[in-house]
Amino acid sequence: MADRVTICECFARDGLQHEPDFVPTDTKLSAIGAFVAAGFRRVEATSYSHPDRVPAFRDASDLLARLPRGTGVSFKATCPNPRAVHRALADLDAGNGADELSLLVSATESHTERNLRTTRARQWENVEEMVRLTGGRFTLVGVISMALGCPFEGHVDPGRVVDDFGRFAELGVSLVTVGDTTGLGVPTTVGPLFARLAKEFPDVPAVAHFHDTRGTALANCVAALDAGCRYFDSAFGGVGGHPARIGYGSGLTGNTCTEDLVAMFEAMGVGTGLDLDLLMAASARCEEVLGRPLHSMVARAGLGSGATHDS
To answer: Quick one: which of 79, 130, 201, 220 is 20 to 30 A from 174 by CA?
Structure first.
């Protein structure tokens, strides 16, 4: 296929952070192993969030130490503040580091205070310090949350998102994730934003990170694709959302569903590089991990005849 995308599988981090119960490290590793087998080349593995605030990732260092290395997969960890980067550097020095680090900002003051317990100005100072601390030893991924609307402040000016994207670009990140954190985006807002970002920052790819809170995630992915985006985040079973102990979303807060996104892209003739049989095996493993059916249409109905097995 001439048209190809890269999908980062986020079940183990953005997915599990919404779960109320801790998932054992061995169980997480079995799921991540299934993602690697299916052919994902970017996997969001964990977070260096404070273990008291987000206990889902209290095993971050242990998990990173036991990941399957030498597979050509880049494993990503989230860093909300400089203390997290110090932890990431310690793991790297021990030979167990992440390949990528996500550095977080929010497009709105209200969400910044709720999620990061600081101000936007102070968080940008944190990001600058985090970039300095990493010293070029990781691939850095900027993350802009609430980029398409905020449950506290409503409409978000696209110009603010463009400015934040530019600040990340000036700091030398490799990618910038544009997050529709509570599913307020629609194709008519997604398309123009991603087209503008592609035009203004041709050397820094945007990553489309949508939540399906209002059923628009797949449509928004197509709008981003049509605007030139070729990097996407998703999570098996459409799981995820805000951390379990930090409430700011409602309804079905989860991510774009990996199974459904891959099936749609493949049926459209957009290659994902994934083995579809092993994709479905990973889907079943994620349901076993959480002990319930998840929110995948494809898991219930099957891949259909449109998806190809030789992408």
So the answer is: 220
